[in-house]
Design a protein that fits this description.
It contains three helices and 15 strands. The chain has about 220 residues and is mostly beta strands. The strands form four sheets. Strands 7, 8, 9, 14 and 15 form a five-stranded antiparallel sheet that branches. A hairpin with a 2-residue loop joins strand 5 and strand 6. The radius of gyration is 18 Å and the shape is globular.
């Protein structure tokens, strides 16, 4: 609780300064994706989905029935000098608003819109898509010596030098590759594709990983 109180105080000070998203100047929030985590976790899986499954309702798979899924871990890392501060999804801190979140009746929690996009690309372009709406942006894994401010699902954010982990086992943590022909492709993961989060820095928002789909 003490760490959350500190996080709230920091967030309020940042919001008062007009920099809850990283602020102006050269330093701030700088998001990227851990490419090595994707490489180490890529795996094919088959799963059957009922018509009323949340993954069908939210478009994580193309249709009910047996689907072929390309699963992988996705860890979004804040390489910037300041924390990404969102706050309570029901009442987010400026510059974020309720419009940046969407409540999922199926899952019973909020999603941050447009947090990351997943694509499978071939020589002619994209052949399959995935879409990750973050349900809990928090400090999951340390990526540096910086201390965590204690962000969690109730008061969301991502401290400098910390990663927000979405393991391959989670629902929606995949690209539906059902019907995609065997061959060589690229998995492309983009964080903050719509620019809802203002960033300052040169960490890449897009990472690409080669993958071979067997028959």
């Amino acid at each position: 609780m003490e760490s959350l109180a500190v996080a709230l105080l920091v967030a309020l000070l940042l919001a008062a300064a007009g920099c809850g998203d990283g602020g102006g100047g050269r330093d701030g929030v700088d998001l990227t994706v851990d490419r090595d985590a994707i490489v180490a976790s890529l795996a094919l899986d088959s799963r059957s989905f009922a018509a009323d499954d949340c993954s069908v309702a939210e478009g994580s798979v193309g249709a009910p029935g047996v689907r072929r899924l390309l699963r992988f871990d996705a860890i979004v890392v804040n390489r910037g000098t300041r924390a990404l501060v969102l706050g309570d999804p029901a009442h987010p801190l400026p510059p974020f608003s309720a419009a940046d979140f969407e409540f999922s009746p199926c899952h019973g929690h909020f999603h941050f819109r447009d947090f990351a996009d997943y694509e499978l690309r071939g020589p002619a372009g994209a052949v399959a898509f995935g879409h990750k709406q973050a349900f809990c942006i928090r400090d999951s894994l340390p990526y540096g010596p910086e201390p965590s401010a204690g962000y969690d699902c109730a008061f969301q954010g991502l401290s400098s030098g910390w990663g927000d982990d979405y393991p391959a086992a989670l629902d929606g943590q995949w690209i539906d590759v059902t019907g995609v022909p065997a061959g060589d492709y690229q998995v492309v993961v983009t964080v903050n594709p719509a620019g809802r989060i203002r960033e300052h820095g040169d960490a890449p928002n897009v990472v690409t990983v080669p993958v071979h789909l067997p028959e």
